[in-house]
Task: inverse folding
C-alpha cells in the first residue's frame, strides 16, 4: 500500500483528479482509514460517478470497476478496488431470515407428538379442532392425557406448549390431568438443577471477573490485511469478526463459539483473530481434529499471511521426530507465531513463549483427556471455537450465556444446495456417479469407513470404472504414504479418493463435487452432514450419494437420522440439524452430571428453562415467568379453513402468532397472510385484534381479560407492571365505572355495544393503565 500512497501523492501534487473505486461502503471506509495512516486524505466518498466533483483532489467512489485507467490529457487517474487489494469473488446472498436460534423453528408439532404443558405435564398432541362455544366458533388444540382425559387450548395460545424431547428413546408415561405426579417430577428436577446452576454460575463468575489481556483495537496494518481478503465478507461474517475483535479488546478473557455451516467463512474469522494476536506480539495455537486438516489450515494461513512478518508452523505426525523437536523448540523460543496441529500440541513438551489465543476447530471431535487440557488453556488465554454442527451441550452453554455465540447463516452467492440421493448400494449407480463427475472435469470422494476392507473396495471400484485413477487413504496409514496420497489428490493426479471419515472436517477442495458415502446407516447424523459438506464448494452443482448397506435393517433411530438428512439439504442447515439430532438422541449430560432421568420426566425445553431460571436467581437477577394471557370475548377469531385449507399451515401460523413479541411483527404477519392467502375475512381480522391485545397484556403482565358488551374484568398477575396507586385513583375518581372485585381483579363498566367495539375499548382502557 505504501508505494500506491506515494503514487497517489505524486498525482495530487500535479493537481490531478484521482478517483478510487470500491464496491462497498465498508471497503471504502477501510481504504480511507488506511490512506490517512500514510498521510493521504480523501476529500469525500461519492455514492456514484456522477457525484464525483470535477476539480482536482482525491475521491473515493462506490461502484464496480474491474480495472482502472489514466487519462493524462484530462489529468484524471482512476484506480479500481481489485488493483488496490487484489481481485475479489462475488457478493454474498442477502439473508432471508434475520436473527439467531429460535426454539420454535425446531418444534413444529404433528398429531401424535408428545408435548409438555408447564402446568399439566406430558400429553399427546391430538391436532386442531373447530368448536362452537357460547355461539362463537374458534379453533382449539387437543391434548390427550392419561385415562383419555382431554385438555382443549385455544389455538392462539399454542405457545404455552413445548414439543417433548427426552434423554433417550424411551417414551414417557402420560401425566394425569389434576394429578400430583407432574408437580413431583418438576420439584425433583428443580432440586437437581440447582446444583448444576451453581456450577454454571461459578463458571460465569470466573469468566466475568478474571483479568485477561486486552488486545489493541485494529490499526491500519490490520485494515490492510482484512482488505486483502479474496472474497467479499457476508453480513454474518462481518458481525462475527466484530464480535471477536470486541471480545479480544476487552480485559475479560474471550470464550466465543463461531457456528456456521460448512464453507460459510468461519476460517477467515479465525485468521483475522490470529493476525490481530500476532500483531500485538503474542502467539496463536490452532487445534484441529485431524492431520489432514492441520495441513490444509497450514496452507490457508500461510497463503493469507505471506505478505506479513508472520511465521506459521504445523505440528503433526506427518513431521519426523527431528522436525517436531525443531518446531517445539521454535514455538518455545518465540520463533514461530502461529502453531497449527492436532492434539499433539496439547502434550506437555509443547510450550509457548507468550500464548495469547487458542483456536479450536470442531471441539466436539476431541476426547475427554484433550478437553481437560483445553480447560487449562481457557483459564489463561482467549479461546475461539469453530463448529459447523455444534453438539447440543455446547449449544446449551451458548444459549445460557456461559459462552458467547456468533452465528454465520449467510451462504456465499455462488453456493448451491447439495443434491442428496439416498439408495441401496448399486454398482450401476456408483459407476454413473463417478463417470458423470469425471466427465465434467471434477473429482470424487468415496467414503468407505472400514480400514480392513478399504484396499479391496478400491480395487473393486477400479474394475468398475477402469478409465479412472483411484487411491485410498485412512488414518492408520504410514504418515508419509498418507501425505503423498493427499498431495497427489490435491494435484488432481487421482480422480477418486476412497477414504474413511478422515476427510470429515474442514477440507476445502473445490474440484470435488461428488461424494459417495457407503454404508451410511452405520454413521452418525452430524458425521454424515459434515462429510456431505466436503462437496459443493465451487459454483457447480454438487451431489451426495448416501448408500445403504445391503443387509441394512434400519432402526427407528436410523430412519429418523436419514430422514433428517434428506430434509435438511438447504444451505445453512447445520445448526437446525444439531437441534434435530438433539431431539433424536436426547439431552445427554450437562457439565458431566447425568440428568437423563429428569430430562425424560419433564422434557428438554422445560429442563433448559428451569436451568436458566435457577442461574438467574443465583446471579441475583430478577426472573419473570413469561405469562400467556387469556382473553375471553364473544367474537369469531380464528383462521377459517375456507381461507387456509392446510391444517399444518394453520397450526404453524397459530404457533407463530402466539410467539410474537412486538406489534410490528404482528403487522408484518398480517401483511404476509394477505400476500399468501388474499384479503383477510372478518374472523382473521378479529384474531389479529385479539393478538394485538394479548401483546399489550404480556407487556403489562395481566393474566386475563373477560370482555362483554357491558364492560370488562381484568385479572392482574402478582408482579403486574400496572401501579396499584393508579388503579386506586381511578376507582376513587369514578366508582360507578371502576370497581375492585378482589385484590387482583378489577371490573370496568361500559355502555352496551357490539363485542368487536368492546374489544377496541378494552385495549384503549388498558393502555390508559400504563
Result:
Amino acid at each position: 500500500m505504501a508505494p500506491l500512497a506515494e503514487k497517489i501523492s505524486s498525482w495530487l501534487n500535479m493537481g490531478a483528479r484521482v478517483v478510487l473505486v470500491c464496491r462497498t461502503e465498508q471497503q471504502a471506509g477501510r481504504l480511507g482509514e488506511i490512506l490517512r495512516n500514510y498521510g493521504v486524505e480523501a476529500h469525500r466518498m461519492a455514492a456514484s460517478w456522477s457525484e464525483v466533483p470535477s476539480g482536482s483532489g482525491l475521491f473515493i467512489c462506490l461502484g464496480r470497476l474491474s480495472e482502472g485507467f489514466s487519462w493524462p490529457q484530462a489529468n484524471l487517474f482512476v484506480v479500481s478496488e481489485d488493483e488496490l487489494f487484489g481481485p475479489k469473488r462475488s457478493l454474498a446472498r442477502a439473508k432471508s431470515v434475520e436473527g439467531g436460534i429460535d426454539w420454535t423453528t425446531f418444534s413444529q408439532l404433528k398429531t401424535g407428538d408428545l408435548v409438555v404443558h408447564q402446568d399439566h405435564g406430558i400429553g399427546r398432541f391430538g391436532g386442531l379442532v373447530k368448536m362452537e362455544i357460547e355461539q362463537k366458533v374458534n379453533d382449539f388444540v387437543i391434548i390427550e392425557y392419561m385415562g383419555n382425559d382431554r385438555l382443549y387450548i385455544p389455538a392462539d395460545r399454542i405457545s404455552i406448549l413445548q414439543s417433548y424431547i427426552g434423554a433417550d428413546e424411551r417414551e414417557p408415561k402420560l401425566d394425569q390431568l389434576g394429578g400430583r405426579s407432574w408437580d413431583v417430577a418438576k420439584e425433583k428436577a428443580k432440586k437437581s438443577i440447582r446444583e448444576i446452576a451453581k456450577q454454571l454460575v461459578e463458571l460465569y463468575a470466573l469468566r466475568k471477573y478474571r483479568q485477561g489481556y486486552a488486545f489493541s483495537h485494529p490499526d491500519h496494518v490490520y485494515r490492510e490485511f482484512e482488505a486483502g481478503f479474496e472474497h467479499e465478507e457476508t453480513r454474518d461474517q462481518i458481525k462475527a469478526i466484530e464480535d471477536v475483535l470486541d471480545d479480544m479488546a476487552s480485559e475479560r478473557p474471550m470464550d466465543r463459539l463461531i457456528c456456521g455451516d460448512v464453507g460459510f467463512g468461519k476460517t477467515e474469522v479465525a485468521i483475522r483473530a490470529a493476525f490481530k494476536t500476532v500483531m500485538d506480539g503474542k502467539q496463536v495455537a490452532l487445534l484441529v481434529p485431524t492431520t489432514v486438516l492441520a495441513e490444509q489450515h497450514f496452507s490457508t494461513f500461510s497463503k493469507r499471511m505471506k505478505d506479513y512478518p508472520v511465521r506459521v508452523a504445523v505440528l503433526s505426525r506427518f513431521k519426523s521426530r527431528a522436525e517436531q523437536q525443531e518446531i517445539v523448540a521454535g514455538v518455545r523460543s518465540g520463533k514461530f507465531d502461529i502453531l497449527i496441529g492436532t492434539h499433539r500440541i496439547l502434550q506437555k513438551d509443547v510450550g509457548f513463549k507468550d500464548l495469547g489465543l487458542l483456536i479450536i476447530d470442531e471441539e466436539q471431535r476431541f476426547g475427554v483427556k484433550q478437553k481437560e487440557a483445553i480447560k487449562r488453556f481457557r483459564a489463561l488465554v482467549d479461546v475461539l471455537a469453530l463448529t459447523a454442527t455444534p453438539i447440543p451441550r455446547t449449544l446449551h452453554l451458548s444459549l445460557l450465556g456461559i459462552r458467547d455465540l456468533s452465528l454465520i447463516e449467510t451462504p456465499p452467492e455462488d453456493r448451491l444446495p447439495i443434491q442428496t440421493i439416498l439408495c441401496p448400494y448399486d454398482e450401476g449407480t456408483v459407476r454413473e456417479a463417478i463417470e458423470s463427475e469425471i466427465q465434467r472435469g471434477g473429482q470424487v470422494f468415496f467414503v468407505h469407513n472400514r480400514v480392513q476392507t478399504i484396499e479391496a473396495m478400491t480395487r473393486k471400484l477400479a474394475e468398475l470404472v477402469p478409465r479412472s485413477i483411484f487411491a485410498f487413504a485412512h488414518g492408520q496409514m504410514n504418515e508419509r504414504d498418507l501425505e503423498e496420497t493427499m498431495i497427489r489428490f490435491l494435484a488432481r493426479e487421482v480422480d477418486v479418493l476412497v477414504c474413511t471419515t478422515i476427510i470429515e472436517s474442514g477440507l476445502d477442495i473445490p474440484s470435488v463435487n461428488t461424494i459417495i458415502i457407503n454404508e451410511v446407516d452405520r454413521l452418525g447424523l452430524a458425521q454424515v452432514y459434515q462429510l456431505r459438506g466436503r462437496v459443493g464448494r465451487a459454483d457447480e452443482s454438487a451431489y451426495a450419494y448416501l448408500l445403504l448397506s445391503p443387509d441394512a435393517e434400519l432402526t427407528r433411530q436410523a430412519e429418523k437420522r436419514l430422514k433428517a438428512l434428506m430434509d435438511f439439504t438447504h444451505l445453512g442447515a447445520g445448526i437446525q440439524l444439531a437441534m434435530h439430532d438433539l431431539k433424536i438422541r436426547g439431552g445427554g449430560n450437562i457439565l458431566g452430571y447425568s440428568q437423563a432421568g429428569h430430562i425424560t420426566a419433564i422434557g428438554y425445553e422445560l429442563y433448559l428453562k428451569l436451568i436458566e431460571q435457577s442461574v438467574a436467581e443465583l446471579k441475583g437477577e430478577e426472573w419473570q415467568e413469561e405469562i400467556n394471557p387469556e382473553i375471553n370475548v364473544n367474537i369469531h377469531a380464528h383462521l377459517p379453513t375456507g381461507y387456509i385449507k392446510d391444517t399444518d399451515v394453520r397450526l404453524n401460523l397459530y404457533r407463530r402468532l402466539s410467539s410474537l413479541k412486538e406489534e410490528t411483527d404482528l403487522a408484518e404477519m398480517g401483511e404476509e397472510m394477505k400476500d399468501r392467502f388474499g384479503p383477510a375475512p372478518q374472523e382473521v381480522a378479529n384474531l389479529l385484534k385479539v393478538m394485538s391485545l394479548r401483546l399489550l397484556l404480556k407487556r403489562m403482565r395481566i393474566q386475563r381479560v373477560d370482555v362483554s358488551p357491558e364492560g370488562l374484568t381484568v385479572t392482574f398477575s402478582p408482579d403486574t407492571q400496572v401501579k396499584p396507586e393508579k388503579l386506586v385513583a381511578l376507582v376513587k375518581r369514578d366508582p360507578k365505572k371502576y370497581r375492585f372485585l378482589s385484590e387482583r381483579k378489577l371490573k370496568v363498566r361500559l355502555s352496551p355495544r357490539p363485542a368487536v367495539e368492546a374489544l377496541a375499548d378494552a385495549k384503549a382502557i388498558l393502555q390508559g393503565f400504563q
About this structure: Residues 100 and 121 are 28 Å apart (CA to CA).
